């Protein structure tokens, strides 16, 4: 069985972070493992607390995983501090990790900052060079490139700037655009657009985590990057279209929508 590791923060309400990743990996029929960077106290209405793990303990989790069950792909989500980013980069190099998806999580869907100021630079310097693909949303891509993204051409311009930090692909997610849900991939000088059906559902807690772990799952299964993104987007759109409505705020997706017939 193919295996996928997620290195991310825990969302106690189950909609984003580690919990969304493990549900996504399981829904793809793969074996999921997790190294937890931080506990968060959050729910569909917001993030109420963050308790980070130590660098030493994160290193220990990664040693346990890589020395025993080697992952076929690795997804990295919320990593809020410089120290933890350094630990991850060192361990990924030490164990020659492959199929690395970096989701540069900066702000939660509900608007809370999930990254300390000094961590942004470390993310770009230490993790981007190791990534097979990085998956910023539009606001994150604006921060990383330093330009405003409004028109189709802006996606390309921003990606080219970000590409100076990575040899991997840059997937700029258009979920925050109003009219459509199209995503843009810049990979080794080539452009790919992935057109999405925009779903009229305000319950989008964890869309970014779900997409990146679905991409990692598809890479682990041996798909090319563009094919992994196409399949991941299809999975995500279905989970959103299912119309689950839990909690008082922006609720989670239904990861098990393809298994409904079993019940
Ligand atoms: N309403 C929607 N309908 C269809 N697809 C959507 C919708 N909202 C987001 N998406 C898709 O979800 C994926 C994740 O994009 P999004 O921009 O929401 O990520 P994100 O902002 O990183 O997520 P998060 O808020 O969890 O951090 C993309 O493929 C995007 O196109
Ligand atoms: C733990 C965690 N990771 C990522 C996000 C991004 O939505 C979140 N809300 N919580």
Automatic annotation (TrEMBL):
Domain of life of the source: Bacteria
- Entry-linked Pfam families: Phos_pyr_kin
Q: What is its EC number?
A: 2.7.1.49, 2.7.4.7
Q: Where is the signal peptide?
A: none
Biological process annotations from GO: thiamine biosynthetic process
Keyword list (alphabetical) reads:
ATP-binding, Kinase, Nucleotide-binding, Thiamine biosynthesis, Transferase
Catalysed reaction(s)?
4-amino-2-methyl-5-(phosphooxymethyl)pyrimidine + ATP = 4-amino-2-methyl-5-(diphosphooxymethyl)pyrimidine + ADP; 4-amino-5-hydroxymethyl-2-methylpyrimidine + ATP = 4-amino-2-methyl-5-(phosphooxymethyl)pyrimidine + ADP + H(+)
Q: Does the keyword Nucleotide-binding apply?
A: yes
Can you name a GO cellular component term?
cytosol
Q: Does the keyword ATP-binding apply?
A: yes
Pathway the protein takes part in: Cofactor biosynthesis; thiamine diphosphate biosynthesis; 4-amino-2-methyl-5-diphosphomethylpyrimidine from 5-amino-1-(5-phospho-D-ribosyl)imidazole: step 3/3; Cofactor biosynthesis; thiamine diphosphate biosynthesis; 4-amino-2-methyl-5-diphosphomethylpyrimidine from 5-amino-1-(5-phospho-D-ribosyl)imidazole: step 2/3
Domain Pyridoxamine kinase/Phosphomethylpyrimidine kinase positions: 11-254
Which InterPro entries does the UniProt entry name for this protein?
A: HMP/HMP-P_kinase_dom, PM/HMP-P_kinase-1, Ribokinase-like
Q: Which GO terms describe its molecular function?
A: ATP binding; hydroxymethylpyrimidine kinase activity; phosphomethylpyrimidine kinase activity
The family line of this record is: Belongs to the ThiD family.
- Protein name as annotated: Hydroxymethylpyrimidine/phosphomethylpyrimidine kinase
Give the species this sequence originates from: Anaerostipes butyraticus
């Amino acid at each position: 069985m193919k295996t996928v590791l997620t290195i991310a923060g825990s969302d106690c309400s189950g909609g984003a972070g580690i919990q969304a990743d493990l549900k996504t990996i399981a829904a793809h029929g793969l074996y999921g493992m997790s190294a937890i960077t931080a506990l968060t106290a959050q729910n569909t209405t917001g993030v109420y607390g963050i308790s980070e793990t130590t660098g030493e303990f994160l290193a220990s989790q990664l040693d346990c995983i890589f020395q025993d069950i080697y992952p076929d792909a690795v997804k990295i989500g919320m990593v809020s501090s410089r120290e933890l980013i350094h630990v991850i980069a060192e361990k990924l190099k030490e164990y020659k990790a492959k199929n690395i998806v970096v989701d540069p999580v900066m702000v939660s869907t509900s608007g809370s900052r999930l990254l300390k100021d000094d961590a942004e630079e470390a993310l770009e310097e230490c993790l981007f060079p190791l990534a097979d693909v990085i998956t910023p949303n539009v606001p994150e891509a604006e921060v990383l490139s330093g330009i405003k993204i409004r028109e189709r051409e802006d996606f390309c311009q921003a990606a080219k700037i970000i590409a100076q930090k990575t040899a991997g692909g840059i997937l700029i997610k258009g979920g925050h655009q109003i009219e459509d849900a199209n995503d843009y991939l810049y990979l080794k000088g080539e452009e790919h657009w992935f057109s999405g059906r925009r779903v009229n559902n305000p319950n989008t807690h964890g869309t970014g985590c779900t997409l990146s772990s679905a991409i990692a799952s598809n890479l682990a299964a041996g798909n090319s990057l563009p094919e992994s993104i196409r399949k991941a987007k299809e999975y995500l759109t279905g989970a959103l279209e299912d119309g689950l409505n839990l909690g008082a705020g922006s609720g989670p997706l239904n990861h098990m929508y393809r298994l409904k017939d079993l019940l």
